[in-house]
Amino acid sequence: MKIKPKFTISTKKINGWITFIILLIAAVISVFPFFWMVVGSTNTSADVTMGTMSFGSALKVNWNNLVEKASLLRIFWNTAKTTLIYTFLSVLICSMAGYGFEKYRSKSRNLLYNVFLISMMIPFASQMIPLFKMMNKLKLMDTHTAIILPTLAMPFLIFFFRQSFISFPTEIIEASRIDGANELRIFFSLVLPPMRATFAAGFIYSFMKQWNNYLWPLIVLQSNEQKTFTLLLSSLSSAYFVDYGQLMLAIVLATLPILIVFLTMQKHFVTGIVGSSK
Amino acid sequence: MKKRTKKLINYNAYGWFFVSFALILFCVFTIYPAFESIWLSFQTFDEGAFRFSGLDNFKRMLGDKLFFKSMANTFLFLIIQVPIMKVLALSFATMLNKPKLKARGILRTAIFLPCVTSLVAYSVLFKMMFSMNGIVNNVLMSLDVLSESFQWLQNPIWAKIIIIIALTWRWTGYDVIFFLAAMQNIPAETYEAAQIDGSNSWNTFWKITLPQLKPIILLTMIMSTNGTLQLFDEPMNITMGGPANSTLTMSQYIYNQSFVYSPNLGYSATLSYVIVFIMIILAIIQFRITGDDAK
Amino acid sequence: MKKRFIALTLVVALLITALTGCKAEKPAPDSSGNAKNENNESNNDSTDTSEPTTLTVWAWDDNYNIPIMQLAGEYYAKENPNVSVEVISLAKEDVYTKMQTGLSAGGTGLPDIVLLEDYVSAKYLQTFKGSFADLTDKVDYSNFLPFKIDAVSNSGRAYGVPLDTGASILFYRTDLIQEAGYTDADMQDMTWEQFIEIGKAVKDKTGSYMIVEMAANKTTLLRSMMQSVGKWYFDSNGEISIVDNVALEKGFALIKDMKDAGILYEAEGTGDRAGVLNNGTVASIVNGPWMASTIKAATDQSGLWRIASTPRFSDVEGAVNASNLGGSSWYVFESSKNKDIAADLLNKVYANSTEYYEDIMLAHACVSGYIPALSGPAFETEDEYFGGQKIYQIFADTLAKVPGVNYGGYVAEANDAITAAFAGVLSGDTEIKAALEAADAQLKNQLGR
């Protein structure tokens, strides 16, 4: 390894720089709209629509306008509560199902698994009316339960966990069975910890899905007290006169929490990556 | 021998236990509504009540040029956008997985970021970026590529391209997450061994990374195919399906039939199951191509 | 290990409790603990308002119809202190989506009152017959503009109470017009041909586009043009009227002329449209009174804007310099438990209070369809932003001249069909006649006719 010819090292260096530059461009393109969003929240509506790219002084005005219109704390609490409960339960339920499908193979469960996969492809719009009727019968209209419950068993997440559990060695599970470990304990304390990167990815997927969920909460939530962030954004953006400065600020506020969660969760599965390549 | 059989039955019960929570929720909130909406597809909504109309909805679909146009648009997005995104995501993931990369953490985070934006945020931003006073026109004009502002979203071809750009912007980082998460499952020793063997990074990618990533590629392929065939948010909010229906997608058309036009719930259910049928066929093809043994 | 598992189980249990607790947290919709409950005894009205009641309303604009309805609630509460109004703020499209879901599911999950655009209301009245309360005998309709009564009626019965009108108005930048060598007098009561001539001069001398239209749905101008000669996508019997529609044919030709002359700016969305109006890229727009607030967002242009009547066709019989662009009305659901109170509120406030209308006009530029409220001292108000013009007077004068048409309800479908066909005309690929036939065919397919 140490007696590599000199030119190889220099090509490697050049390659490294090219990689870096390509990724840098991709990163700038990815981040630019966020930068613009933040800039927009400090500008007046007229400045935003004229494409201003520099920080303005209207942040306070936008904030006051927004606070006047919506009880932000309430909306934040509603969104955070539903999203966290949803995320936790869906990751738990779907990971268990994925584990059940992968590590306890049987013909009937394989068939069931395929039914799950197919159901993923039914457009939600066509399910909405029947689900709505059901929520009404269950007296769940205008409750947060109604926006959490129906989509907890996410076929995609089950699919994702099942695919991930393939890589978990079955021998380890069998070994601890011989040691007399209980099946549930095997799942929670043997399988779960080393797969935390997978769980982090599943968590992010589920969190983002629910935080940005729009159509279904729109349909089942009725009162202002139950409102979530996406509904606020949507109603702000469809007025006769859209105040874009205020809208940008609302977008920033709606994006911040999910950004924070994302950055913290990302660390979790990223440490795995660093660890494995060291 | 007897003991072993007993244990197997026991495992089977545990298997059912693990899937039971998902199964119950699934039966109540997916299977039941699905059957109700299949039943709907044989009905027509008329003056406040549903009435049975047999195959009328299906016949109507066969003569519905706009639906076939929306189908053509959707498949165009599928055929062009999904491969571009997978190639980009795989390249970015491979590059980001290099341990010696400068500022790796920051670059990685930046590339992941777009997928956290909410629909309203992202569509407002994209519409404004490509407007006459938008950043895209300003940059291109200052670089002398354009002599005057161009109306991107008014051109049927460019409107499609912009939808593709928007989709790629938002979802590539998402795939990168999945690919990176999968790449860490490849033991570092495998790479070290390859390096010692003098394999260059190109070969390493094809011979080691790609085969190991097969399950996750299949996963994201299914996810993207599914997402693209149900594509709704982007055309709805960026182009409204225009100009002249050139970006109208199947899901958007179904939504219009249910909620924008006079309610055709039966008809939109019919169209939904046509999509489901197409997707099942595509999924089977994808499983066959990648040769997943689960099927 | 065991500890961890127990902890996990506990967390799950906690979450499930929290989840089921969600339901209990929410106050029941009609148990409003309003401070107004105190003076129970002052209630002396015919309608039963002795119980505290909250009327739920769906509307869509936080700067416009939402505060307008909240004010109506305050007006009504003066005499009926037990009744309060809660307005739910939604996006306009979302009002329709939610309502259509609720109605399709058999009339559940609906509010007491909903705001609907006149363009779409007929469709819902027709499709969901019996789901809207018949207000014909509950509201005094004698003082509304006839074309507004038409808009809220179906088969001779009235179901809605008009909120506002959309007098079609030409907003323009007087400084740009003057730079091009024209005066404010030239902008009054002109024809579309004259408008295009001025537009060419404006483009030449100032570089600004003359007029802006939404790109995704290019029908604002067409709709204004159609109603100015008493035409619509549908005739008075509700039959599709596109192929033989002279207003559409002329309108297509005029808008194509504008585009060919380079004076038409096609906006990507409302944000883009606001931007080009606010920064001088475009010199004028034809739209309803509500456009004033968008224009006024550019505070630095105060005094540079004027309003004038909409241009007219030069060669179509009955063409006037006036038209209407939408407007909306309040409807009460038959399923509402409080429908009598809701109807009473609409009657007391919207059909009997000129004071209320004066308030909402001055506060929100809302121009009503209530005739007694279309004159009076408020109309003398001069608007500095528009160079001291009495804008409300101009809106009201316009309304008096608007020809009535039957909107037919399927305006969304017709708009989409026309927009798609019109794109071909603008790009020069399709002849106007052929485009009208294509739109006609698409609309017929959509409506199953």
**Biggest sheet record of chain A:** none
Coarse structural class of chain A: mainly alpha
Number of helices of chain A: 14
Mean pLDDT of chain A: 83
* Overall 3D form of chain C: globular
* DSSP strand content of chain C: 5-15%
Distance between the ends of chain A: 17 Å
Oligomer: heterotrimer
Under CATH at level 1, the class of the largest domain in chain A stands as Mainly Alpha
Portion in helices of chain C: 40-55%
The appropriate CATH architecture of the largest domain in chain C is 3-Layer(aba) Sandwich
Stated plainly, the CATH topology of the largest domain in chain C is called D-Maltodextrin-Binding Protein, domain 2
CATH homologous superfamily of the largest domain in chain C - what is it? Periplasmic binding protein-like II
Number of domains of chain A: 2
Q: SSE order of chain C in H/E notation?
A: HEHEHEHHEEEEHHHEHHEHEHEEHHHHH
- The name of the CATH superfamily of the largest domain in chain A reads MetI-like
Keywords:
heterotrimer; A: 278 residues; mainly alpha; MetI-like fold; 2 domains; 14 helices; 76% helix; globular; disordered C terminus; B: 295 residues; two-stranded antiparallel ribbon; 12 helices; 73% helix; disordered N terminus
Model description:
The complex is a heterotrimer of chains A (278), B (295) and C (449). Chain A is mainly alpha-helical. Chain A folds into 2 domains: 13-61, no CATH class; 70-243 and 252-277, MetI-like fold (Orthogonal Bundle). Helices cover 76% and strands 0% of the residues of chain A. Chain A is built from 14 helices and no strands. Chain A has helices at residues 6-41, 45-49, 59-69, 72-103, 107-119, 124-137, 144-148, 155-166, 170-178, 183-191, 196-211, 215-220, 229-236, 244-277. In chain A, α1 runs antiparallel to α14 and α13 crosses α14 (244-277). Chain A is globular, with a radius of gyration of 24 Å. The two termini of chain A are 17 Å apart. By secondary structure, chain B is mainly α. Chain B folds into 2 domains: 2-40; 59-290, Orthogonal Bundle (MetI-like fold), CATH 1.10.3720.10. In chain B, 73% of the residues lie in helices and 3% in strands. Chain B has 12 helices and 2 strands. Chain B has a two-stranded antiparallel sheet. The longest helix of chain B has 39 residues, at 2-40. Chain B is flat. Chain B starts with a helix and ends in a 5-residue tail after the last helix. Chain C is α/β, with parallel strands linked by helices and 449 residues long. Chain C has 2 domains: 12-166 and 325-374, D-Maltodextrin-Binding Protein, domain 2 (3-Layer(aba) Sandwich); 169-323 and 402-447, Periplasmic binding protein-like II (D-Maltodextrin-Binding Protein, domain 2, 3-Layer(aba) Sandwich), CATH 3.40.190.10. Chain C is built from 17 helices and 12 strands. Chain C has helices at residues 2-25, 65-79, 92-104, 118-127, 146-151, 174-179, 184-187, 192-206, 220-228, 246-260, 270-278, 291-296, 339-350, 354-364, 391-401, 411-426, 432-447, and strands at 53-59, 83-89, 113-117, 153-154, 157-158, 160-162, 169-173, 209-214, 264-267, 282-287, 305-309, 328-332. In chain C, the strands form 3 sheets. Chain C has a 5-stranded mixed sheet, with helices on both faces. A 5-stranded mixed sheet of chain C has the order 9-8-10-7-11. The longest helix of chain C is centred in the N-terminal third of the chain and has 24 residues, at 2-25. Chain C is globular and about 70 Å long. Residues 10-46 of chain C have low confidence and may be disordered. Chains in contact: A-B, A-C, B-C. Chains A and B meet through α1, α4, α5, α6 and α8 of A and α1, α3, α4, α5 and α7 of B.
